[in-house]
Design goal:
Oligomer: single chain
Number of helices: 8
Shape: globular
CATH superfamily of the largest domain: NAD(P)-binding Rossmann-like Domain
Helix content: 40-55%
Structural class: mainly alpha
Strand content: 5-15%
Order of helices and strands: EHEHEHEHEHHHH
Number of domains: 2
Largest sheet: 3 strands, parallel
Radius of gyration: 18 Å
CATH class of the largest domain: Alpha Beta
Number of strands: 5
């Protein structure tokens, strides 16, 4: 879904179909034979049912009502592809994120979405191997280690973001 419309396939898209969607865009706008209006896609998106939700379009779009509908339809995990995906006025931990974090596994946006920041940090290192594989491995390991640290102190499937934020702030002071 984007600001112009969306496509929904309840049994999921395979890799080839995703690549085709990306290559057929008009700028940043989706182009597809089965493109629904934004209004129709936005209405259906939240209740279609999915175990994993990746809000990646922009910041501050996901409402509490959206989260409740996703949970009612089987949501288990949120992994942010956008910084601050919830429609909270607070940047770090507002009431919508708190609600989501207490009901499902929310991988913190500052961990899940750290890719390019980590790539830049890696590239500024001395004598680093500059290959796709090395850069991806470094970024993947950074995310893995961050999640392992959170899991060491919180074995629950909820309140992951809250604990990760506590750990991160603790490292700063």
């Amino acid at each position: 879904i984007d600001g112009h419309g969306g496509v929904i396939k309840t049994d999921g898209y395979n890799e080839k179909e995703i690549v085709e969607l990306m290559l057929n865009r008009d700028g940043m706008a989706l182009r597809a034979n089965n493109l629904m209006s934004f209004e129709e896609a936005n209405k259906k998106l939240w209740s279609v049912g999915a175990e994993i939700f990746i809000p990646a379009a922009a910041s501050r779009l996901v409402s509490k009502e959206n989260v409740e509908t996703l949970i009612d339809n089987g949501l288990e995990v949120i992994s942010s592809g956008a910084n601050v995906p919830f429609a909270d006025k607070e940047i770090f931990f507002g009431p919508i994120l708190d609600f989501a974090d207490s009901h499902v596994s929310v991988i913190p946006d500052f961990i899940a979405n750290c890719g390019m920041a980590r790539v830049f940090a890696y590239l500024m290192g001395e004598n680093v191997e500059i290959t796709d594989e090395a850069i991806f491995a470094d970024t993947s390991n950074t995310i893995k280690h961050a999640m392992e640290k959170v899991h060491e102190v919180n074995h629950a499937q909820t309140n992951i973001t809250k604990k990760a934020l506590e750990l991160s702030i603790g490292q700063l002071v």
